[in-house]
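Reopening this one. Same input as before:
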Amino acid sequence: QVQLVESGGGLVQAGGSLRLSCLASGRTFSSDAMGWFRQAPEKEREFVAAISWRGGSAYYADYADSVKGRFTISKDNAKNTVYLQMNSLKPEDTATYYCAGWNGRNWSGRGDYWGQGTQVTVSS
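Same output, byte for byte:
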């Protein structure tokens, strides 16, 4: 059974930074695409970022336009952990952030397995 456990959320002022972590267990993690989604109150869950393995030590990252240049996704296979570094945070980044994984190298649409989420609140 795959488990994803997020951590690192919290309250931060606009312009600040947070780093989210997602610890994975229960399957071979190194070749899976992994990503982050978020959901604000009364809004649909939306894609934030994903990282896909291209073979060897090559990875490719995708980002939503709203976070490009501010957020960075990374993966540490030795620690079974994926990270989301969030800089220059804005009040509109306030949401519950969910870690997601796909059963394979490539991400597409919504994830195949999910974490429980971690709350990020950005005050103005």
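So the earlier flakiness isn't reproducible anymore. For the record, Residues 69 and 87 are 9 Å apart (CA to CA).
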